[in-house]
Amino acid sequence: MNVVNRSKSVVVRFMIISMFGWLVTACEKPSGLLFPPSQPPGFEIVNHNSEWKPIMQEFGGVQMALVPAGCFQLGSTDEQIDYAVTRLGAQRFWMDKEKPVNQQCFDKPFWIDLTEVTNAQFNTFGGQASRTSKWTAGNRPREMIGWDEALAFCEKRGARLPTEAEWEYAARGPDNLLFPWGNEFDRANVVWADAVGDPSNKTAEVGSKPSGASWVGALDLSGNVWEWVSSLYKPYHIISTAVGKIKITPPIRG
To answer: What's the CA gap between 160 and 2, in Å, rounded?
Structure first.
């Protein structure tokens, strides 16, 4: 179930933090940049999450997690959608956009930011945005970001926004987990708020829920704020893992 994907960013993130429009970005880089050519990690296909030991690397002062080659099922089954609707309060018309389930494969590894981009990182790299963050502490996620602004920020770092499939694969892995940590929702693993009026309805410092880490070690893929991806918002059967032209009306994830 894409409780870490299309409807999850609308439902679980909405349910977790209820922050429409408070968007941040995480960037992606191609792999193999800092490893000896004879021993590049991540190129061997990973068939189960447990086969992979997280690898972190710093790029320009930003920690990134390596996502190895492999395949996963993008999308949600009817059973998984029922779980989201009955157990998590998701709206079925949101979750129905998770279909059809389809396999997505990556023949090369890639890097993804370990956490959401912070206010401090956004300023350090000269990010530009038309609106200021609602919460401005240095280690809080940089929210109130438009897609064009997120795209430009990643380019300043020599990176790009991840595709929808890349983002979800980093969150779920070949085990096709419902959440980054497993198949049962656990509010202790996410920055979570029940409603807009909830006093806890605010962001937290990035990485504040280490128990919610994904199989590659990436943090906050569920909870805290929504995140931009580069892919066009369309049915899954046309989604590609390839990096294409700049797309309009991109979806938000996370």
So the answer is: 22
In terms of DSSP H, where are the helices of the chain? 6-10, 12-17, 78-88, 92-95, 119-124, 147-156, 164-172
Is the whole-model pTM more than 0.70? Answer: yes
Q: DSSP letter for 235, please.
A: -
What are the C-alpha distances in Å from 26 to residues 2, 46, 65, 220?
Answer: 18, 23, 11, 11
Q: Which residue type does 194 have?
A: D
CATH value at residue 25: 3.90.1580.10
Please give the residue range of the domain that contains residue 229. Answer: 6-32+45-253
Sign of CA dihedral 217, 30, 245, 25: positive
Amino acid occupying residue 83: Y
Q: What is the distance between the alpha carbons of residues 227 and 138, in angstroms, rounded to a whole number?
A: 18
* pLDDT single digits (tens) 192-227: 876 555 666 789 999 999 999 999 999 999 989 989
Which amino acid, residue 159? A
